[in-house]
């Protein structure tokens, strides 16, 4: 079992930066592909960025390419999402996700609000 705790959200102006962190528990963290999802009011949850077990492969949604960077530290059991050049449309609750086969875990989410 993996427990995930996000932090780092907050209020930021357009063009600013935030770094989200996800702290994971459990002995098999390095077996999990990790991702950051977000859900804005009235919208479905969407995958923003993903990273493979050892960090060699990453994925980004088109809407965040060139602005967001996902990274992980398996020794510290941490996943990060560096968000630059924030836009009002980035406003959402951001969730950390861990996936390994049929196992899938979510954090409680952290709110990111970008003012125009």
Q: Could you give a short description of this structure?
A:
The protein has 116 residues and is mainly beta. 0% of the residues lie in helices and 53% in strands.
Regions with pLDDT < 50 over 5+ consecutive residues? Answer: none
Percentage of residues in strands? over 45%
First-to-last CA distance = 40 Å
Radius of gyration computed on alpha carbons = 13 Å
Structure summary, number of beta strands: 11
Question: So what's the overall shape?
Answer: globular
- What structural category do the secondary elements indicate? mainly beta
Largest sheet: 7 strands, mixed
Indicate the percent of residues in helices. under 10%
Count of runs of 4 or more consecutive helical residues: 0
Residue-averaged pLDDT, rounded? 97
Structure description:
- With 116 residues, the chain is an all-beta fold.
- Helices cover 0% and strands 53% of the residues.
- The chain has strands spanning 4-7, 10-13, 18-24, 33-39, 46-51, 58-60, 68-73, 78-83, 92-100, 103-106, 110-115.
- The strands form 2 sheets. Strands 2, 4, 5, 6, 9, 10 and 11 form a 7-stranded mixed β-sheet that branches. Strands 1-3-8-7 form a 4-stranded antiparallel β-sheet, with no helix packed on it.
- Strand 4 (33-39) and strand 5 form a beta hairpin.
- The mean pLDDT is 97.
Based on the model shown, name its key terms.
116 residues, mainly beta, seven-stranded mixed beta sheet, four-stranded antiparallel beta sheet
